[in-house]
Design goal:
3-stranded mixed β-sheet
């Protein structure tokens, strides 16, 4: 859901910025008068020397009794939505604990960092893997894994990923007692110096 919210926010922000930028460019180049376009009578932003909002536009609602409550309420709502979005971004980065099925119906909690450390150590012991970084994300009952692997220059990526899936991720899935443990794996090759021919 958060990914959809991020995409919608990005799309709305992009459309708004493109629209405002296009309007500013059109007025700065005085395109309406050059093209013979008639703007509405109450439109204050008419040419390069005009402003988007005149003083009369800025102060016309100040004396109304509903004006300040509406402004303060709208700003408070925007602030709350922005804080929710920020906390949602921070919360999804790292899963602190995973619920492990202990067989008694209540379950046990496993520290996410401990599980990440074990998976990283096991992955770094695999042939062809020089460094591994595991990050647990998702929900406590439905964890997902982000994996970053630095592989040796001579390693075969397909073989490394298959071994990682069949050993490290499968061991972690069985240990945590979850039905599935989806993983997103990103591979990077370690730099190596060129071989010298004598």
């Amino acid at each position: 859901m958060l990914r959809t919210v991020n995409r919608v926010l990005l799309a709305v922000t992009g459309v708004a910025l493109i629209g405002l930028g296009g309007a500013a460019l059109a007025v700065a180049l005085d395109l309406p008068s050059r093209l013979g376009v008639t703007l509405p009578a109450n439109w204050s932003w008419r040419g390069p020397d005009s402003v988007p909002l005149s003083r009369a536009d800025r102060v016309q609602w100040r004396e109304e009794s509903w004006w300040w409550p509406v402004v303060i309420g709208a700003l408070a709502l925007i602030l709350l939505l922005a804080l929710w979005w920020l906390l949602a971004q921070l919360r999804r980065r790292h899963l602190r604990e995973v619920v492990v099925d202990s067989g008694d119906g209540s379950g046990a909690l496993l520290h996410g960092s401990a599980m990440e450390d074990v998976m990283s150590a096991e992955a770094e012991a695999l042939p062809g893997v020089e460094r591994a970084r595991f990050t647990l994300i998702g929900r406590r009952t439905e964890p997902r894994v982000r994996v970053g692997l630095l592989i040796a220059p001579q390693a075969r990526p397909g073989s490394v990923v298959r071994t990682l899936r069949d050993q490290t991720l499968e061991n972690a899935r069985r240990s945590a007692g979850v039905e599935k443990l989806p993983a997103e794996v990103r591979l990077r090759s370690a730099r190596h110096s060129a071989d010298r021919v004598i």
